[in-house]
Structures are given as C-alpha cells and as structure tokens.
Design brief:
- It is built from 7 helices and 10 strands.
- By secondary structure, the protein is α+β, with helices and mostly antiparallel strands.
- The chain has 3 domains: 80 residues, no CATH class; 108 residues, 2-Layer Sandwich (Tetrahydropterin Synthase, Chain A), CATH 3.30.479.30; 60 residues.
- The strands form 3 sheets. Strands 7, 8, 9 and 10 form a 4-stranded antiparallel β-sheet that branches. A 3-stranded antiparallel β-sheet has the order 1-5-2, covered by helices on one side.
- The model has no long low-confidence stretch (mean pLDDT 84).
C-alpha cells in the first residue's frame, strides 16, 4: 500500500461552522423547535469529530470504517472525514542504538559489535499497514543486517588484502546502509546513516588476538628497519668505492656489510672495536 493525500478542509472554517451550528441548535431549542435544534447540534458534533490538529513533523493516517483514505502531513488545523480513525506517525529523524552483539566474523572469530542507525518514515501507509509496529521492525531488521554484514568480513586483515571491519569501517558502514535500505523499504523507512559504535574481539579471545596484532606490528617494523638498513649499507659501500677510500676484496666487503647490518638492525647500541693493526 502506498501513501496518498487525505481529503481535508481548512480547520478554522470548520470551527466557525461548528460554533454556528451549535449556537443555532441551542437557540432553536429555546424556541421549542426541539427536532430541528437537535439535528443542528448533532451535525455540529459530527463535524467536530473530523477536526484534527497536526503538529510539525507529525502526520495522521486516516481510515474510515476500515478503508485507508489518506495521510495528512501539512501542519495546522484541518477538517477531515467525520467519524474517521486517526493514527499518528512521527516524521522526525530518529536514532536506533543497537545492543552490543556477539557475532562470528568470516574467519569464525567471535567479536562484539554495535551500530547506530539514523532513520525516518517516508511512507506512512507502509509503516502502519504493511508491518506490525514499524519501530520494532526497524530494530529487529537492523540487528539482523548488522549480523549479516559482520559475518562477511574479517575483524582485521593481516594479509593486507580486501576489506576488514577494523580497517575499513567506512566501507562496512556503507554496506550496512545498503542492506538496511533493502530490508526496511517494505516499512516505508529511509535510512539516513549507519555507523559502527563498538567493535572489539570477544573477551575469550581478546588476549590472544592482541598478541597476534603485536607480533604483526613487530614484524612490520622489522621489515622496514631491514629495508632501510640494506639501503644504508649499499649506499656506504658504493660511496667507499666511488671515493676510493679503501679497496676491499669480496671477503672483506662481506664482513663489513655484515658488521654494518648488525650495528644498524640491532636492538642495542653497537660497541665499536678499533683495529690498530693491518686490515689484512
């Protein structure tokens, strides 16, 4: 079912007509014209049942004896079909903070994750008639989508290939938004934004995963140090040969390269040894 505009008239005019009918009916009663006066008062009361006040960013879904007649979105005082039923629907932007969920990522590691979903109703007819309690529908579908998206990515990408939950939170949030829009369009709800608010390894594996992250960080740092040390050694050997400071055979060159690498890569400060004798 799609939303449509309800039939309405100016509410202030309706109030004036209602008061006129009421005053006229009472006046006729005093003149002993009970039937005509009663009819005018009854018409006025029926008319007043259709008067509705719509606040800004609020709407009313109108049904008349079980039939959907339309939605009033414009704020103000309006007259709609008398004796109709009215269901209020908020058009404001709202937040939904999901609970912290425990989910397995694509590698089977248990992680804790939570998200905030920003949404608003754009089709009041779908929100009221196509789903049962659209607020709860949004909550359940949001948590389901969060679980599904989380299970498609690893928590951390140690191979540096593809997306990960920790390293690509913007991309993951984009995928979550797309999936939520697909799931919630049946309820007439538009997703404005979806963001991860909590992401961590589950308690039972947090310690082991922290050690793994530290080990990978140490390996990455060592790789950078070794690459830098190789460049420095190569530059030193080329400079010595270019400036002809000393002539080294292959054996002595290998020994010098080894000593330079040890001095540069070592965690501790190098202790120099001065050779006072012959080089050979």
């Amino acid at each position: 079912m799609k939303e449509k505009k309800a039939w309405v008239l100016n509410g202030y005019l309706a109030v004036v007509i209602f008061l006129a009918l009421l005053v006229g009916g009472i006046a006729l009663l005093f003149q002993m014209q009970f039937i005509l006066g009663g009819v005018l008062i009854l018409i006025g009361l029926l008319l007043s049942s259709g008067i509705v006040v719509v606040q800004p960013n609020k709407s009313y879904v109108i049904t008349f004896f079980g039939s959907y007649t339309g939605t009033i979105r414009e704020p103000g005082l309006w007259l709609t079909i008398p004796l109709s039923m009215r269901k209020s629907v908020s058009l404001r932007v709202r937040n939904f903070n999901s609970k912290t969920l425990k989910v397995n990522d694509i590698e089977g590691n248990p992680i804790e994750i939570a998200a905030v979903i920003v949404f608003k109703v754009v089709d009041t007819a779908k929100a009221i008639f196509d789903v049962d309690k659209y607020e709860q529908f949004v909550e359940i579908q949001s948590e389901t989508a969060l679980r599904h998206v989380t299970s498609r990515y690893p928590y951390d990408n140690f191979q540096k290939e593809g997306y990960s939950l920790r390293g690509n939170s913007e991309e993951v949030a984009g995928q979550l938004t797309i999936e939520l829009e697909e799931r919630l369009k049946v309820a007439g709800v538009q997703i404005i934004e979806a963001r991860l608010t909590h992401l961590a390894y589950a308690t039972e594996i947090a310690g082991a995963m922290l050690q793994r992250q530290q080990a990978n960080a140490i390996l990455d740092a060592r790789q950078i140090i070794v690459e830098g040390a190789m460049g420095m050694v190569q530059m030193a050997v080329e400079r010595l040969e270019k400036d002809k400071v000393v002539q080294l055979d292959e054996e002595r060159k290998a020994a010098m390269i080894n000593n330079l690498l040890v001095a540069i890569v070592s965690d501790r400060s190098a202790q120099p040894v001065i050779n006072t004798g012959s080089l050979y």
